[in-house]
Amino acid sequence: MKLRTIGVLTSGGDAPGINPCIRAAVRSAIARGVEVIGIQEGFDGLIRGEMSPLRVRDVSGIIHRGGTFLRTARCPEFLNRKGQRQALRELNEAGIEGLVVIGGDGSMRGAHALAGLGFPVVGVPTSIDNDVWGTDMSIGVDTALNTIMQAVDKLRDTASSHQRAFLVETMGRGCGYLALIVGVICGAEVILIPEVETRLEQISEAVEDAYARGKTHAIIVAAEGAALNVDQVAAHLNAHEVGFETRVTILGHVPRGGSPSAFDRMLATRMGVEAVDALLGGMTDVMVGLEGREIETVPLEEVVKNSRSPNLAFYEMAEILAR
Length: 323
Fold this sequence. Notes:
Rossmann fold; seven-stranded mixed sheet; alpha/beta
């Protein structure tokens, strides 16, 4: 059956590049003679029937903007069958015949649940943690990495001026991808991630060794989900004579915002177009993902059963290069 109307929603945590993805999905669908309805505030808005038509001009001027102009929200109600059936009812009443879901691993679980009820759904991965299985890179990762890198580079300037050790905490509760990659590209002395166990003594030894080798600063990049939090590490370093004064910077949600990078704009645009192509081509219960240089589809059943972990070979490389 040819789809006449599709819906687009963004769910879960926001990420730079979502707006270019929405723009691409809307305009590519309209170019194929398909109407598009934008659903506000994710699955929560879907259950409440918060939706309106999207036309070409409605997505004009958003390609450079961070966040999501459709807004997003968490939705505990959608975790149960009752909420999912209410969402299905709202989709049917609005005349929506297929859905593009843009979001992280939780959103892909929601998309898979809807597909399980027989509704055509295609997912698009967005997660600055890069923890969605089935894609080499999620939308938003590149921009977040650049934001954190610029922050660390600036902190290094002041750290060197005052001979200090800086602990920089990034997002990454369950996946240390951001901290790991930033640690490599910023030349951190120590990287703390959930996937690798590190003792306080190892940290103080590394910082003290950096001082003994004549370095004017030390950088420690920590994922928020690491076993040792930055306050613990700072207290330990301050209690020992490591040569440097210690300061803590918590970046928090800063990496989620900002204008998407060139890479993220292109990735988001390609994924938005491919998601619509897949949906109109009769595919459902799949997610589009980057595999090498190509955008491919992967079954959502596989996506929700797995999680993507960082390449720990990069951790070993960072340890070698920090010496």
